[in-house]
Amino acid sequence: VEIAYNNYAGFNEGWEAGGTKFVKADGLIVRNSCVHHNDGPGLWMDIDNINIVIANNLVFDNLDDGIKHEISYSSKIYVNTVARNGHERLNWLWGSQILIQNSQNVDVYDNIVEVGPLYGNGISVINQERGEGGFGPWLAMNNKVHNNTITHLAPKGMNGVIADYERKWFDDE
Predict the structure, then answer these.
(1) Considering only CA atoms, which of 143, 149, 27 is closest in space to residue 82?
(2) For residue range 163-172, what is the model confidence (pLDDT) as tens digits?
(3) Exposed/middle/buried for residue 79 (C-beta within 10 Å: 0-12, 13-18, 19+)
(4) What is the 3-state composition of the chain as percent helix, strand, coil, each rounded to the nearest 5?
(5) How much is the pLDDT for 89?
(6) What's the pLDDT score for residue 169?
(7) Can you list the positions of beta strands (E) in the chain?
(8) Are 94 and 65 in contact (CB under 8 A)?
(9) Residue among 32, 37, 30, 33 nearest 4 (CA)
(10) How far is it, in rounded angstroms, from Cα 116 to Cα 102?
(11) What confidence score (pLDDT) does residue 163 get?
């Protein structure tokens, strides 16, 4: 499958626009697809997805994250080539090639990741206060990121894990 040039009308890519957005899928498999030049995320799993497989895809030149797994559960993201996504995004870890956001039990491995010379980030995990869904809390926990090859074409961009919320660490009472 080729998924390309979506959101030509220019809707807000942070809300509902881009290449794909899957919601409440169980057992979805996206394999052997080419996802490119979408005005928003390339492949976006959002809200209570579980048992997802994202494998052997080519995901490149999307305006936002390449592969985004948000507020969802148990999934595998492997043997993908993900490059040059997240145009002009260098804040926090947004605009990543692969982003795990408030999801748990996600295994990310054997991917080839290329961060462009002017924008984007590599593989990232972001945790926020988001509540819970049909399979438990929407927390970034029990995720595994291993055996990936990440190349940065310039000294820009990051990889890592962050908490994106303010938290009171000590109780004054």
Answers:
(1) 149
(2) 877 665 545 5
(3) middle
(4) 0, 40, 60
(5) 64
(6) 53
(7) 2-4, 29-31, 34-36, 43-46, 52-55, 58-60, 67-70, 75-78, 81-83, 96-101, 106-109, 112-115, 121-127, 132-133, 136-137, 144-146, 149-152, 160-163
(8) yes
(9) 37
(10) 25
(11) 87
Residues 6 or more apart in contact with residue 24 via CB below 8 angstroms:
47, 48, 49, 134
Mean pLDDT of the chain: 91
| For range 64-70, the mean pLDDT | 96
Calculate the CA 92 to chain-centre distance. 13
Q: Which residues contact 22 (CB under 8 A, 6 or more apart)?
A: 28, 44, 45, 46, 49, 52
Question: What confidence score (pLDDT) does residue 173 get?
Answer: 45
Contact 81, 104 (CB under 8 A): no
Say what the pLDDT of residue 69 is.
98
Q: Which residues contact 172 (CB under 8 A, 6 or more apart)?
A: none
